[in-house]
Each structure stands twice: as structure tokens, then as C-alpha cells.
Design goal:
This protein is mainly alpha-helical. The protein has a single domain, classed as Rhopdopsin 7-helix transmembrane proteins (Up-down Bundle), CATH 1.20.1070.10. Strands 1-2 form a two-stranded antiparallel sheet. Helix 2 runs antiparallel to helix 3 and helix 3 packs parallel to helix 7. The longest helix is centred in the last third of the chain and has 54 residues. The chain is globular. The termini are far apart. It is found in: Cell membrane. It holds the Pfam family 7tm_1.
């Protein structure tokens, strides 16, 4: 028979903050999880706060890329602010904060996952437009347009995260005599719905857009004479790759759990897949959690050349540089187009002058 969804067999949670019964089941796992989350908090919380402060207080001009990075830091910083609750959960090996906090905290965690990947997708789309269609960049760089896009994105993120409020609950594990904040599914269709939503909205669609965007960008760069890898491309590509490395294992486990739910109960394949996702859910979830503290580290290494010259403002100068790269490139392309037009105009004028001169000479000869 398939494992029961109550009592001792509780499915690990499904949100992006993956502290579940398997993590707090043994002292060794508890100590390991506590140390990892503590390190993530000590690195990620002040790191994201520094990014936010750098953009708001030190950046002289906020470009589209800078605004997207600001929103990404706010999302990650908010998640880092919740980390102490999960550290306490691990330390006590018991959920003491009730059902409401269980739902709210994990709702915010799932919203962070969606917000992060959607913002990275928007960065990729912006780079695509600025490189492939630089003449249209002014259409999407208006402050009002960007604010509307970000507002719609956050609204969609909040709506997409509602399943965490529905399925998340704090229940008593009678055998171990402790309360667990977990995601409970009474039917296989609920498992498929929740995890497929995370897979499609949190990985397949955004990464499909990101992949297509960068393929078009690379093709465009190869076609132009400006083949130098600009700073903003390197930084945003590093953010994309890092996020994928941290989240891909988690979404693979989601796929495994969906596949197990679609198979007949008690079948050998289903039992094997259930064993796999239950064994690796905690590991992949912890890896995914680390992603929220990775971006400040990337920014530090990308902007370390500014530290001696700019001091605490080094990160602001870095973000200003990423914004100026696309602007300069667009201006350069526009200038080249204008230069070509001027050259063509001069050639035409020369031809006209030459034609007029020849006509005068012929007329003079005829008169003679």
C-alpha cells in the first residue's frame, strides 16, 4: 500500500522554504540544518540590506536593471528576515507558532521563489530588447512603464502563491509527539496541481523565456562588430546560472513527486519514486534556500574593482555601470546609423554637385 498521509508518514512541504519533518527528524539533521540556515542568514540578510541601501542611498541614477536588482534584493532580503523563525523550528524540533504563522511564513517563501525567477526573467527580456532592438528601448524604459510592469508582476506572484495558504497546515505527529508545519495532500490531484504550478510558473515558463532571450542576444552580438562581453551581460548571466543551479534540483524532485502521484497506488514504480523524493526533498530544499544569499556575493565579486576608488559606494557604481552599458551601446548603434545616413547624404550631394558641374560644362561647350 502507498504510505499514509497522516501519522508518521507526512509528505515534505512543497513551498520554496523547505523545512519539513525529514529535516527535523534526527539530531544530526537538525544541527546541520540549523548551521546552514544560520550561515545563510548571517550572509544573506546584511548582504541584501547593503544592496538595497546602495541603490536607494548611493546610486546617482536608477536604470531599469538597477530597479530590477532592487526588487530582487527586497524579495531575497524579506526571505532572509524570516530565517530566524525556521532556525527556531529546527532548534526546538517542534512548530510552536501555530497554523496561521505556518501558512503565512511558507506563503511568503513561495512568493519569494516566484518573485526571484520572474525578476530574473524581466532582466533577460530587457537585455534582449536593448541588444536586439535598441531603437525601441526608450518605449520600455519609462519610469511609469517599469513601475506598472513590476506592480503586475508582484500581483501575479501573490496570486500564484495562494496554494501555500490552502495546503500548508500545522499538525501533530502523534508518534513523535511534536507539531509539524507541513503541506498535506489528501488526494493525488492536489499533489499534481500544487507541484505542477510550481514547475510551470517557477521554472519551465521563465527559464524558457530566459533561454530564448540569451540565444537571440548571443546571435545578435556575433553579428555585430561590438563583440565585447559587456559587464551587464556577465552579471545578469551569472545571476541566471546561479539561480538555476540552486533551484534545478528542487524542481527535479517536484517532477519526481508529480510522476509518483500520477502512477497507480502500490505500483513498484510509484513506491520507488516516493522513496526518491522523500529522501532528497530536504537536501534539494536546503540548497534552494541558499539561493537568496548568493546574489550579494556575486555583486561583491563583480564590483570589487570599484572598492578602492568608491569605498562603500562601490556597489552603486557597479549597478550604474550595468545600466550605462546598454545605454551606451544603444547610443553607439544610433550614432553609427546617423553617421551612415550622413555619409550617404554627403555621397548623394557629391553626386548631385558632379552632375550639375557636368551639365554646366556641356552647356558652355554647346554655346561655343
Amino acid at each position: 500500500m502507498a504510505p499514509s498521509l497522516s501519522g508518521t508518514q507526512m509528505p515534505p512541504n512543497s513551498s520554496s522554504c523547505m523545512i519539513n519533518d525529514s529535516i527535523v527528524s534526527t539530531p544530526a539533521a537538525t544541527v546541520t540544518g540549523t548551521l546552514i540556515l544560520s550561515a545563510v542568514f548571517l550572509l544573506g540578510f546584511p548582504g541584501n540590506l547593503f544592496v538595497i541601501w546602495s541603490i536607494l542611498a548611493r546610486a546617482r541614477k536608477q536604470s531599469v536593471t538597477t530597479l530590477l536588482i532592487l526588487n530582487l534584493a527586497i524579495a531575497d532580503g524579506s526571505l532572509m528576515a524570516l530565517t530566524p523563525f525556521f532556525i527556531a523550528y529546527l532548534a526546538m524540533m517542534d512548530w510552536k507558532m501555530g497554523t496561521v504563522m505556518c501558512k503565512v511564513l511558507f506563503y511568503l517563501c513561495l512568493a519569494n521563489m516566484y518573485a526571484s525567477i520572474q525578476l530574473i526573467m524581466l532582466m533577460s527580456i530587457y537585455r534582449l530588447v536593448s541588444v536586439v532592438w535598441p531603437q525601441r528601448i526608450s518605449v520600455i524604459t519609462g519610469k511609469r512603464t517599469i513601475m506598472r510592469v513590476l506592480g503586475v508582476m508582484w500581483l501575479l506572484v501573490m496570486v500564484a502563491s495562494i496554494p501555500a495558504l490552502i495546503y500548508r497546515d500545522a499538525r501533530l505527529n502523534k508518534e513523535r509527539n511534536r507539531t509539524v508545519c507541513d503541506s498535506f495532500h489528501d488526494k493525488d490531484p492536489d499533489v499534481v496541481l500544487q507541484y505542477m504550478l510550481e514547475i510551470v510558473l517557477g521554472f519551465v515558463v521563465p527559464y524558457g523565456v530566459i533561454l530564448v532571450s540569451y540565444i537571440c542576444i548571443l546571435r545578435r552580438i556575433r553579428q555585430t562588430r561590438f563583440r565585447r562581453r559587456i559587464r551587464s551581460e556577465k552579471l545578469i548571466l551569472a545571476i541566471v546560472v546561479t539561480f538555476c543551479l540552486f533551484w534545478l534540483p528542487y524542481h527535479i524532485i517536484n517532477m519526481v513527486q508529480v510522476a509518483s502521484a500520477l502512477l497507480p497506488e502500490c505500483s513498484p514504480k510509484r513506491l520507488l519514486l516516493e522513496k526518491i523524493w522523500k529522501k532528497f526533498r530536504a537536501v534539494t530544499s536546503t540548497i534552494a534556500f541558499i539561493s537568496s544569499c548568493a546574489n550579494p556575493v556575486l555583486y561583491f565579486f563583480a564590483g570589487k574593482s570599484y572598492i578602492r576608488r568608491e569605498g562603500l559606494a562601490f556597489m552603486a557604481r557597479l549597478f550604474e555601470g550595468t545600466g550605462l552599458d546598454s545605454t551606451r551601446k544603444s547610443q553607439m548603434n544610433s550614432q553609427n546609423s546617423r553617421d551612415k545616413d550622413k555619409d550617404a547624404e554627403v555621397v548623394l550631394q557629391d553626386k548631385d554637385s558632379s552632375t550639375n558641374s557636368n551639365s554646366i560644362i556641356k552647356s558652355a561647350k554647346t554655346g561655343k
